[in-house]
Amino acid sequence: MMHLDHTHDGPTAVSADAQRPDGTRRALRIGLGGPVGSGKTATVAALCRALRDQISLAVVTNDIYTREDAEFLLREAVLPPERITAVETGACPHTAIRDDISANLEAVEDLEDEAGPLDLILVESGGDNLTATFSKGLVDAQIFVIDVAGGDDIPRKGGPGVTTADLLVVNKTDLAPYVGSDLARMAADAKAQRAELPVVFQSLRTGDGVTGVADWVRARLAAWAA
Amino acid sequence: MSRAALLVLADGRFPAGGHAHSGGAEAAVRAGRITGAASLEEFCRGRLHTAGLVSASLAAAAALGADPAALDTAADARTPSPALRVAARRLGRQLMRAARATWPSGELDALAGEFPKGAHQPVVLGLAARAAGLGADDAAHCVAYESVSGPATATVRLLSLDPFDATAVLARLAPELDRVADQAVLAARRTLDDGVDALPAASAPLLEISAEAHAAWAVRLFAS
Asked: How many Cβ atoms from other residues are within 10 Å of residue A21's Cβ?
C-alpha cells in the first residue's frame, strides 16, 4: 500500500491504507478509464447488475463537465442513489484520478461511511486520453476500456492505459464488421503490448455481455478478501 | 522557517483539490464580467481585497496559533453564501488530507478530529503552514496568492485565454498581494489579543450571489 512512513491514528485515513479508521478492511477499489464513448459507463452499469445481488458495491463517477454519467446510472437504477457519488473535476478527469486524488478519496470514504459496509467501489473516470491512468493511492486495480470503433490500431499504439492497466477491455465487438476493425489483429497487438496481462473482448449487446469482466472482478475481490 | 516549504505549500500542483474550483471565475465569465486579461485583472483585484484579505487573515491567525475552531466560526460568519461555505469546507478537508500526509502534526490531527467533514480551507492552511515550520506571513501570502491564481488558471480553461496574459495579470497584482498579506498579518496579530472580531470582514456580494446561482447550474466545468 502507498502511504508515508509514519503512523496516523487520527479520525481519517490520509492515503490508501487497506484498513479503515475503525480497523476493518476497506472496500476493494477498481478504477475504469478509457477514451470518450468507449463504453465505460455502460460497463459499470452492467457490472452493477451482475454483482449487486452477491456483493455490496458503490460507484464514484468523475465526469468531464456534467453529472451525465452519474445521472445515467441513477436513471438506469443499477444501484440505489445513495450508492452513487459524482466527483467534479474542473474539466480534467485525469487530474482528479491521478495527480490530485483528494476529492475521490473523500468520495470513497464517505460512501463507506454512509452506505457501507461495502465490498467493492467502482471509480469511473470521465472519458480521457490514452495516457490517463489511476493513481495507486486511489485504486487497487484498474480497467482500461477501449472499443473497436475507436480504431483497431489503438492496441498497437499502446500508451500507459493500454499497456499497464490490470485488465484491458475491448468493447463493442459486435460493431467490428461494420467499422472494418480486425479483432484478431487487435488481440495480437494487445498481447504484444501487455505480455501476460489479461484482455477481455466484450459486447454488451450480444453473447456473454459483461461476464468476462465480472469474473475478473470476482477474482480480484477473492484475492482482496483473502 | 524554510522558504522551500513555502514553495511546496503554495505550489498549484499541491494535491489539495483546488484544480476543480474557479473562485467564481466561471460564473463571472458566463455573466460577461470576465472577457479577457483586463477584466480578469479587475475581477482578481476585487477578489484579492475582499475574500482574499479575509482568507489570508484567517490563515495568518491560524498560523500564529489562534484557536482554529473560533476561526472557523468567524469564517462562517464572513461567508454568507451556503454554497461557498460548502466549497470552503470541502477544500479544507482535501487540504487537511494532503497536509497531514506531508507534514504530520498533532494540531492538524486534532482539527481533523473536530471537523471530520472539513474546516474552512484558510484555517486548515494556516495550521498546515505551522506544521511545515512556516510563519503567519507565509500563510497569508499563500492564501492571498491562491485567491487570484485559482480564477486566473480557470479563466485560461474557460476562455482559452492566452496563458502568458493570465500569468502577467498575476505578476501585475504582486505588489498589491504583498500589501494584502501585510494587512492580514496585522489583523491576525490583533486577533491574538482582541479575539476573532478583529479579523477583517470585507465582502464581495456579487461573488456570494453568483456562487449560489453557479451551484444550481446543471452543466458546469468547475465545482465553484
From this structure: 16
